[in-house]
Amino acid sequence: MDPISAPASPPPADPPPGPRGPGRDPHAAGLANASLLGIGYAMLGRWPLAVGNAIVSVVLVGILASGAHAAWFRTAVLLWWLAVTAHGWYLARGWPRRPDRPARQRLVALGVALPAVLAFAVLRADASGIEDDAAEAHREGDCARALSILDGLWAGHEVADGRLVERADESVEACALLMEAEREAGEDRLEAASTLARYADHPGALWDGAQGRRADLFLAEATHQLDTAIESGSVQSLSLGFEHLSTVLGEFPGREGEVEQVMDGFLGGLPADGACDTKQITDWLGDRPASGDALDRAADVVPEIAPAAIVECGDEALADDSWTLAIERYEQLLDQYPGHALADAAAEGVNQAETEIELDHLRDLVRTGTYCDDPAPYRGADPYRGDATNPALIYGEPGAHTRHLPDSWLADDAQDAVLVICVGDLKEGTSVATCSYESEAAVFGYTDVTFHNRRFPVEVYEVRTGEVIDDTRIEIGGTSCPDVLEYEYYSVDLGPPSDTYVDSSPSDVRAAYESLIDP
Known about the structure:
The structure is a single chain. It contains 18 helices and six strands. Helix 1 (26-33) packs antiparallel against helix 4. 55% of the residues lie in helices and 10% in strands.
């Protein structure tokens, strides 16, 4: 009998369908794809996807590095990175087998992705440090250093943090504004400050630095304007100076101490060299409405320095013959500081100025010959005295009279006059004698002629008061009945007049006026 043979072994079964080779770890595939180089696809044997991923990623990174992209593009790149990472994980998750040792694949994937991620992180950190250093330079107003620092940004920073690089571009633009402002500052600080105001479009340290520089410009301009006000008494400069300081207080918190320093310098420069300059400054400060800030303390110096400045300014106007202006200034002190030690001096100043005004008016009346029609007082004249010579101005019929009067009786100028004597029209005065003279025209060959004194109505004004102190008449006597009587006639001699005047001598004229001028 044949030996029984063992049954033959069945043939090996066919391997299950699907990818062959070692297992694949989804985490390793996703992590490898995070490199954006398609390494995860390559680990899965998906070479077309790997090559396509690498090409697209290179193009996207190149566009990022160029900086020629819109803000949305960075979002698109981020979505692309997340998509390929998730896609690699998804494809590996469908792999039929898992590796016996997944850590090995994960380490390989980490070795591929980590350099890319680290490079990205390092570039972002470096860009941030560059931005911080440039911001510090901006705050210090050192635009040249800021530009030098920003020159350290390159395409890698553009890829890692494109928005930061955009801010850096704004910094460069801001530096251009700052340098433009610096050029303008030497000519027009306010224009420079206006230029810097455009920094408002540049947030953060750029705006902080620009604000600091603007504050510096406003403080410098305020100092200049206040110095000008002290030198010239310019109210416009004073107003501008306070306006700029108010701007600093309102727009630049933390600069109050510097405003105080400017105020200290301004107030320490008062009073100005010119009394009237000081007066204009204190007038403006006194009228300035309170603003509830550090500027209000300027009003505290007004009572200390204004009175002396007002009186001295009035004295200057008095010396310049500006009588009305002098009165305004003296009366300002009397109104605002009635109990001040200088009030008596101001009152005397008013009196002097009004005296000069009255003298000017008197001279005008004398010059135009209208005093007798509109008499006016002059308080500076000496009072009339009945026991002394009172120099006079004589109007009406002075030509024939004044030349016969002593010089001591006549005032050389209105300022020296005690009296103004207004002489009226000549009339026949007292008849002193009647004499007969031969006349061919007379019936009996003789005619009687009566001789009269010269009579003048007079009004005597005291210059000091402008009041009439005597309303009377004077008669100028003289000799009568001469041996030969001279008279005038026209065409036909009708004989001598029946009435005529005595022949007056200089002593007769003096005698008539003596009771008025030198009683």
